[in-house]
Amino acid sequence: MWRLLRAISSFQLWFSDGEPINSTRGISNTSSRLIVDTQGFLDLTDLNSLKFTALDANGLLLLVHGPPFNTPSSQSSYLAELFLTIVEDGGFQLSVTQPMAAKQDIIDANWTGPATTVTGKLKPFPDVSNTDADILKSVIKAKYVPYQALPDVPGKTADEIKALGQRLFPFTPHNFELAMSVYDWTTPSFVRLVYLKIFQYTSIKLIPSPLDLRSIAQRIYATNWSTYSPHNPDFMNSFMMLPASSLRDVQAQLDVVAPMLHESSDAQNRLIAAAMQAMPRASSFAHAQLFSGQMDIRELGFDYFGIEFLECPLNAGPVGQPLIQAFETALASYVSIGKIITTKMIWSFTDTVEDALHYSNGIVIVAKHLTDSVVWNTASYITPLSDDPTKVEYTFPPGSKFKILNIDTITYHGKKIVVIELQPLDLTPQGAIQKSYISEEIKKEMLVQSRWREVM
Question: Among 24, 75, 94, 361, which residue's Cβ finds the most Cβ atoms within 10 Å?
Answer without folding.
Answer: 94
